[in-house]
């Protein structure tokens, strides 16, 4: 008989560098995803159009909206995503993630 071991919490640290070659496309997709999301706007601090304008005026917010860290473990049996931190900044990498040596 197999014994189930206690769940183990693992921490995965990532830095992902991307180059955005078509900012308008990123914004269009982020806005489309936001419009398609099942959000009860009556419980939010802003409304749909305000959120759309925020995405249109902030490329980093649009990229962050499209990059969902929760998908990292999709399809891996025995792994349940519990939370994490992901954000997007423009400009050079900062500590603790110095740029890779090229």
- Note the quaternary state here: single chain
Largest sheet: none
- Helix and strand run: HHH
Strand content: under 5%
- Give average pLDDT, whole number: 85
Q: Report the count of strand segments.
A: 0
C-alpha geometry: globular
What report would you give on this structure?
The chain has helices spanning 23-36, 48-57, 59-66. It has 102 residues and is mostly helical. The protein has one domain (1-97). The mean pLDDT is 85.
Quick structural overview:
It contains three helices and no strands.
Lay out the secondary structure.
Layout: H1 23-36, H2 48-57, H3 59-66
Descriptive labels:
102 residues; mainly alpha; 3 helices; globular
